[in-house]
Every structure is written in C-alpha cells, then in structure tokens.
Fold Methyltransferase.
Amino acid sequence: MALTPAAGGCGESPASSVPIQSPRPVNTEVEWDGFDPQAYVRHNYADLRSDDRELLRRTRDFFAGAKLADARCVDVGSGANLYPALTLLPFAYTIDLCEWSTSNVRWLRTQVDGYDELWDPYWQVCVEHPAYAALPDPRRRLAQVGRVCRTSVFDLPQHTWDAGTMFFVACSISADRAEAEHAVARFLRALRPGSPFAVAVMLGSAGYRVGPRFFPAVALQRAEVVAGIAAGAYDVTVHEERPRPSLRDGYLSMLLATGRTRG
C-alpha cells in the first residue's frame, strides 16, 4: 500500500517478501526482513570514510544552495544509513524516512528518537557550512521532523515532496536492471516539479553481504544511470568517487547525481 498523501503522514504496508530462490532475484524474492542493520552500520559507517565524506559534502552544499525552507522532504530506502537525512535537516518541515525492511524500520525509529554518536562525525561535516551550523541541536530537530514510514520505493505517491534523497537503493534492491531504472523513475516522480534531489548509487556492483546474508545488486554503468536520471530531471550534476581502499569487494565506484525534477 502506498503512502496516503491526504493524511499527510506515512502509510503501512503488509510484509510481502519471500526467501531468495532465483540466481538473479527480483525485489519481491529477497528476504528483506532478515537484513541486519547493526551489522550493516558497523561495516559501512562506524568510521567516516573519505568517499562518504565527499558525497556528504557535495550533497550538503547542493541543498544549502537550493533555497529550501520548511520543505516536506523524503529519504527513500533509508535502510541503516542516516546521513542522507541529515543533509535535509536544516530545511525540513518534515522528513519521511521510507524503508521496506521491518528490521531497518525498527532501527530507524530508534535513531529518529536520538541517533547514535557514530553519526556525530557526519554532522560535523555538515556544520562546516553555515546553513547547518545555524542548527544548534540536530538530534532534537530530527526527533521533531523525522517520520519513519514502512513503504516500498515502488509504492511512492506522485508529486508529494519538495526535496529528496535516495542513496544506494536503485543499485541494491534486486538483480533486475529494469527494477533499478523503475526505482529511479518512481523516486523522481514522487517529488514535486522543480524539487532538488540527490541520488547515489554503487556502479558495477555484484551484490553485497550483511552479516552472513548475501543481498543482490545490479552492475549499473555510469552512462545508463545518468541517462535514467536525466530523463526525469534537469540541471543534473554528476560526481564519481573511486575509493581507495574500497569498502568491499564487487563494485567499481560511487556515483552522486544532484539536480531538479522535471515533474
């Protein structure tokens, strides 16, 4: 079930995942409720890496220059990553953190109420810009404006939010390239015309492990990602990070795209 725009809040959806059975699973074949957010955070975000720092810095500067105020914001596929939502914090009237996995939804609710100290270095990158430094208490602010929503990227309502982020989602929700393209399109259509956005993907990803579980991915290439975003956006700027050392085996680089939606 999609979010309910008329209610101005977050919708709830029944669980629909089943165990992985096919060698190239689609999204509905993945056991997302088995995702371990604590293991994911420990591996990916316990230390602020230079590649995440650069993506965070660029996203911060983009939103700071977008002239947003009291915006209805969304972070799609939040998973166990808080820093995209932090980049929206000074400009948000609300931030809907949309996630499908029930384990990730539980984790997000604990973070919205008062996020862990490991996210403090990420906020310190944000406050290097005056627009963020003017916000004295980011934890309190997130607790005020953050709303965790259990919903799929494929069920997002159209033209609902004023600004949005979607980090490492389209590349990592199935092994089906068409689903990755559809996820990007649904995200862009969920924003109102002219809305600023930031999208990040892993390029060339062969899948990833979270604890003992393996999750699928799509080996996206730069040209196809940029073309898919440009189909629904304008003023698109692209930056690619090739981390050394890499976060894990099985991917080439990280790509960040910012721009505004066509509507």
Notes: Residues 1-9, 11-23 have pLDDT under 50 and may be disordered.
